[in-house]
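User: My advisor, Dr. K., asked me to get a structural model of this assembly before our group meeting. I'm new to this, so sorry if the format is off. These are the inputs:
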Amino acid sequence: MSRETTTDLYEVTMALSYLREGMAQPATFDLFVRDLPPERGFLVVAGVEHVVDYLTDYRLGSEQIQGFASVLHRPPEDLEPLLGITFDGDVRAVPEGRVVLGGEPVLEVTAPLPVAQLVESYVLNQISHQTALASKAARCVLAAEGHPVVDFSLRRTHGIEAAAHAARAGAITGFSATSNVAAAVELGLPAVGTMAHSYIEAFGPEEAAFRAFADAHPGPVTFLVDTYQTEQGVRTAAQLLRSLDDATGSGSAIRLDSGNLEEEARRARSILDAHGLPEVRIVVSGGLDEYAIDDLVRAGAPVDVYAVGTRVGVSADAPYLDTAYKLVAYGDRPVMKLSTGKVTAPGPKQVFRRNGCEDVVALAEEAAPAGSRPLLHPVVRKGTRIGPAPGLQHIRERCAADVAALPEEARRVTGPTPLHSSTSPRLRALTDRVRRHIRDAYLPDASL
Amino acid sequence: MSRETTTDLYEVTMALSYLREGMAQPATFDLFVRDLPPERGFLVVAGVEHVVDYLTDYRLGSEQIQGFASVLHRPPEDLEPLLGITFDGDVRAVPEGRVVLGGEPVLEVTAPLPVAQLVESYVLNQISHQTALASKAARCVLAAEGHPVVDFSLRRTHGIEAAAHAARAGAITGFSATSNVAAAVELGLPAVGTMAHSYIEAFGPEEAAFRAFADAHPGPVTFLVDTYQTEQGVRTAAQLLRSLDDATGSGSAIRLDSGNLEEEARRARSILDAHGLPEVRIVVSGGLDEYAIDDLVRAGAPVDVYAVGTRVGVSADAPYLDTAYKLVAYGDRPVMKLSTGKVTAPGPKQVFRRNGCEDVVALAEEAAPAGSRPLLHPVVRKGTRIGPAPGLQHIRERCAADVAALPEEARRVTGPTPLHSSTSPRLRALTDRVRRHIRDAYLPDASL
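Assistant: The format is fine. Below is the predicted structure of the whole assembly, which you can bring to the meeting.
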């Protein structure tokens, strides 16, 4: 199935009706996160590059038309108005890696109404889950306070596409490596990982397993020490590391994957040091997330590398974001919805930022307030990407700078205070005007 | 990137070492869920068919070898022992749609050790997240007590692969349709969906929007009524439905997506009935999951169709399962690990079930206890699929029967009691024997 066929049916039924009515003027849709989940003080944007790739490749061909016709139980001729549609609109977006707050447009699509509508499902999907994963990953990096964090999430993410996105989210936010080979190749990341418990068990004695591994992989090695009894596993690893030549001993590590990781790490450190192996590092894994990392760091556990997996790869405490892709203008007319608890602000917008994260959501046409810079930048014009895709290193540096500029209360691992943007007077005035217009024109009986 | 390259690096480093050591005897790995998450009384198996497709297609070619070599910073020649590897082993699995409990093997792979190891990451990924999604979806169907449940999750799942799996998980567990066109086409499901708030806003007045939609889509229609003010939206929809010919009015519906859904549904039902439209159905959506459905059903809200989205498509309250893929035998030797809190039982296994869900985990070689039937069935032999893939309808019927046979305490939406399987005396004896052997042979210093 093509990406274009992966759409909610209603995008298709709406597009057909728009075309039938001749409603193909430019429409602007805002994509934003309504409210941050609990335990999030900020968000890190991700998914924009996948969206740009999708939009600039978007084309409805006969395969898509056949698919639409079959589920609508209509002859393909009825779907022909859609045949050959490409994305010929404009996109402005907050660059990946940038910090954003609730209510701020992350991406704004302006295209002929049927086209801007048709691309909704994919665009929402990618920005929503990739931003959720990056926002979780950024908190792990904060918690680790400079220690390397690596991604071990592949085995339990929601599919292998999600695993690739989890590895990339980690890379954007400052992880140092991933266990996912495909992601490492594609993103040019270091790949990490050595052995599972099954490896030890297949050999039986730990010493035989460790020795065979070192034979097969000259250079630094990481030994998994908790298959049978951790303290003895550490001793066995230490003795073998001593016997390997210097080139192997330095850069090598042991990995702890169970038990009380703080106690096990302290015990392991003592044993390694007693064997004259102060350079051998301790990697911990097993159910880690930013909360567990924070506990270990605050306890002063002698951990060198944090390997995070499932809880981070699915953003377990906030597995989705409350995103919306909302029509804010059609033709010359700003629009909004008034649904209970889901009111949207009308009109194309810009977000202006100054002093770290003092943000103002304003109308796109407003001038930047003194000392502020706009967050939304053009990334697609008339269906074509503007400039080359930013490199991962660049995105990563942007993320690090933005996170560093956040106030402490938003960066806190436990109980962060989400930052809030303000709304410009002109946007507030337009919102009031559109609300009054809707009331007067469409709701004569209602009191709003 | 190929699916074979989407692997944890350690599968590759271990496989290389196994081959170097000549350790290619048959190994058996058990895939199981250690403990159920809170709020789950049972699990529904899903993902097996994707795993069978993966394994029967598995092949390491030069693309994979290049990828592995590049991340290992080794010349491709070093990786040549892996070139041409296919999955030539056997798989037994619990069929999709079947209910399973914590600790029961869902899938058992027996293959030459390097091969059985190499496929771990993908196999775990697919069974873990698809079983998580199906187990969540099954609870929605239970909560709805016979009312149709439909899948609207595409926009916020963890990627579009995850969306396809969410749609399929719904189909397995009894959902009646999906909004995801690609999934509907691929699975032969009904596709559903009509209009978004943006559609109404693009027109301005609701009446114009509803009329245009009915013009474009003859036959039953669903009108979204909460864009501006729900009560008035329902009236506008009702008046228009009255004016459409009978063929359109019957089978039509209104959709409520915000506010207090119980109150809104009651109000809408009154308005529709007062307009002589008792056949027009009420669809609700917006943040629904099994808990919200249960509340509405218990309150007697006049809801006809429940459309579930994000919370179900990401299994928000339990977004992952505590799965493991553990070596249980190598050659003739049963093995296990003793890591704190993660002890595994050795040996190839079978699960015997009788009287609904009275399960015994036993050794594969044991005879079935009287009146019980085995859950694990051969699905792959020597790398080839055994028999055709089961049809979706068949899987769905199996799921419905299994869920219906569960005791009430496991089926409960709130506070379910997870069922537990027992262990056969022979499996317990083997576990003790292997544990003693490990202690005697590998842990002379330890007291276990």
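One thing worth pointing out at the meeting: Chain A touches chain B through 119 residues (CB under 8 Å).

User: Perfect, thanks a lot.
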